[in-house]
Amino acid sequence: MGNETRVMLTHGWCRSSYSALRGLARRDVPVVVADTARVGMCQASRLVRGRGRYRSPYADPEGFVEDIAALCERHRIGLLLPGHEEGELLAQAREAGRLPAGVSLPLANYDNLVRVNDKDRISRLARDLDVPVAPIVDYRSPAEAGARTDDAREYVARARRGNSSKGVRFARGGAALTAVLESMIDDFALDPARLPIVQECVGGDGWGVSCLYWYGERIATFTHRRLQEKIATGGTSTLRVSAVHPALEADAHRLLDALGWHGLAMLEFKFDPASGRHAFIEINPRLWGSIDLALSAGVNFPWLLYLAETRSPAVARAHFRPARRGVVSRWLLGDLLRRLDLLRRGRLLDGLGGNGVRAHAYDDFKLDDPLVLCGEALYYLAKGITMHSLNPVEAGMVR
Predict the structure, then answer these.
(1) 3-state secondary structure of 118
(2) How far is it, in rounded angstroms, from Cα 302 to Cα 291?
(3) Which of 57, 136, 182, 225 is most buried, most CB within 10 Å of its CB?
(4) 246-255 residue pLDDT tens
(5) For 295-328, what is each residue's pLDDT tens digit?
(6) Whole-number mean pLDDT of the chain?
(7) Cβ distance 207 to 224 under 8 Å?
(8) Which phi and psi angles does 331 have, rounded to 5°?
(9) Which residues are listed as membrane-spanning (predicted)?
(10) Is the model's pTM score more than 0.85?
């Protein structure tokens, strides 16, 4: 299309940013990627037009914003697309006038991002809007949480801020729940004024409803069902399928409509097919890990967002088509890590067996861009060596 606006993606090591890179590059949009690390998926891709590094948004938020501003000027960036939770910092910087003139940031305002990233606040807002949520336990101390719960029931405690399975723990009620909350406060140095949200556990399959909104107006929507997750208790999916679910979609849209949402978001739900009931879990107000499935099913969210910003919302809406149903995508490395963990725990049949579902696409294995899988594997290897974990929790990540 010629003279396209240059885009910079942050958090370049991971699948969500790489999928955004692919979605934009297939439309000939020039993309620069940046990260704290030298290795990763986008860093290894042949599709990038430039690379950069920045200081950690958790350890040095001021330095991070300074580095982003400098990278935007150096690479003549017109659109900045955060790949993960650093969007909140960047929205704050935008409102403080700390981003270079001419750089657009297609995100909700800072206050809305803070509200949505707080699992307690957004769950209570959903409940107020008659969107079903798992019963919430009101308490002011771990001891009170134990006293107000039933030791025969299962509960989930989630730090008010955290991603994937970080800051999530399960326990029966009573003394067991009290002990879990006390350990979470110590382990994550949680502010006593921001105690974890505690809810009764709900069963069912994991579902996601993904949307692009533009100043309160819905542009595109996509729904998927999780077929397999990296850990049994939830978190990142390793296998999922495109689908439809009108009840979940209606509740997702109701919540985003009420927020006057702007930008991308993926809402997570649990749906129990036996009872027909569902419950809202949380909102990811950003690119999400399984976004490659949407691209594979025909909904190129990064490109639609780009069109809305650089052309108009009407142009973006005209390019949206409903997704193809039944498309299956797999996170190859995540599935391998899941299997290795099962084998480590002695579950040989689960670790070696298959589930009979054939994937049509892979998040991290692309024949036309083969080095990205190596970049992803090297990133996990480096984290495993330096931090002794494949899913490390950096200070400030859970709070």
Answers:
(1) coil
(2) 9
(3) 57
(4) 999 999 999 9
(5) 999 999 999 999 999 999 999 999 999 999 999 9
(6) 94
(7) yes
(8) -90, 105
(9) none
(10) yes
